[in-house]
Amino acid sequence: MAEADRDVQKCFEVALELVNQAGKIISDRNDSRKSFVCKGGDIDLVTETDKEVEQLLINGLKNIFPSHQFIGEEESADGVTAKLTDAPTWIIDPVDGTMNFVHGFPHSCISIGLVIDKVTEIGIVYNPMLKQKFTAIRGKGAFYNDKPINVSGEKDPKKALVTTEFGTTRDPAKLKVVMENFAKMAALVHGLRTLGSAAMNMVMVALGAADCNYEFGIHAWDVAAGDLIVREAGGVVIDPAGGEFDMMSRRVLAASSMELAQEISKNLTQFYPQPRDD
Ligand code: LIP
């Protein structure tokens, strides 16, 4: 593989240009109800825009970096997620928050991570409706619309604003755990929010606007970019049971401090999704 294929700065610039183009497609179409098809179940949605934006991003990146690999949400819609190897791999959610996008609720984003040798080098999360662009390159800090950002540093659950999601399934066993955790968190933390996009939830922790985010059932494309952006903003990303984060495990907990992460973790009922079971 040519050295230029691992030039992280060049990869970042190419990805950012494509994200800007893709963002325009999404924001131009946000203000109306969209037709959709159901993927895994009746609340797991995909629109023509998801597919078009994913193709724009993948084709654009392939053109410049022909040896790179891709793990894309819509490419994986047949239930098969490509394995993460050591090759430079772009992990792409073309529209994270598709339910929001279908309704014109302006909290959806493009989420792109670049992972090389299984280490995340680049994270970009862009909500084009609200012009919120979050970026990070490993070791160079996190940025919101080009300004450096930091997590809040909050350690106390009682003062923490926490985000989570209902997820994209109505499976009773999963919903039982979701509701149990809602009840526990409502009693424990300062406030509880669901934005409807896993990536947006995570970058709110990076921005210091929220203090913690957890979810069971996410996929690598929902969290690859957010993970790096949170860590580059000084936060922590762990497994919700307290161990090391694995982006392929479908479980995530991001927080403004390790103390808060562990305290929230201790209070959560755990759920272990199957690899392709939402
Ligand atoms: C979804 C998120 C949703 C989260 C799901 C899933 P999609 O992504 O937006 O908030 O609960 O786990 O990640 O399907 O809209 O790209």
Descriptive notes:
Strand 7 (132-137) and strand 8 form a beta hairpin. The chain has two domains: 3-149, Fructose-1,6-Bisphosphatase, subunit A, domain 1 (Fructose-1,6-Bisphosphatase, Chain A, domain 1, 2-Layer Sandwich); 157-267, D-Maltodextrin-Binding Protein, domain 2, CATH 3.40.190. Helix 1 (8-29) runs antiparallel to helix 2 (48-64) and helix 5 (198-207) runs parallel beside helix 6. The mean pLDDT is 94. The protein is globular, with a radius of gyration of 17 Å. By secondary structure, it is of the alpha+beta class. 34% of the residues lie in helices and 23% in strands. The protein contains seven helices and 14 strands. The strands form three sheets. Strands 3-4-5-6-7-8-9 form a seven-stranded mixed beta sheet, with helices on both faces. A five-stranded mixed beta sheet has the order 11-10-12-14-13, sandwiched between helices. Bound molecules: L-MYO-inositol-1-phosphate. L-MYO-inositol-1-phosphate binds next to strand 4 and helix 3.
Structure summarized in a few sentences:
The chain is an alpha+beta fold. It has 2 domains: 3-149, Fructose-1,6-Bisphosphatase, subunit A, domain 1 (Fructose-1,6-Bisphosphatase, Chain A, domain 1, 2-Layer Sandwich); 157-267, 3-Layer(aba) Sandwich (D-Maltodextrin-Binding Protein, domain 2), CATH 3.40.190.
Helix-residue proportion: 25-40%
Shape, principal axes of CA atoms: globular
Termini Cα gap: 35 Å
| Proportion of residues in β-strands | 15-25%
Radius of gyration: 17 Å
Q: What is the CATH architecture assignment of the largest domain?
A: 2-Layer Sandwich
CATH topology tier name of the largest domain: Fructose-1,6-Bisphosphatase, Chain A, domain 1
SSE string: HEEHEEHEEEEEEHEHEHEEH
Can you count the beta strands?
14
Mean pLDDT: 94
In terms of structural class, how would the helical and strand content be classed?
A: alpha+beta
Poorly predicted sequence stretches spanning 5 or more consecutive residues: none
What is the subunit organization of this protein?
A: single chain
Strand order of the largest sheet: 3-4-5-6-7-8-9
Query: What hetero molecules are in the model?
Result: L-MYO-inositol-1-phosphate
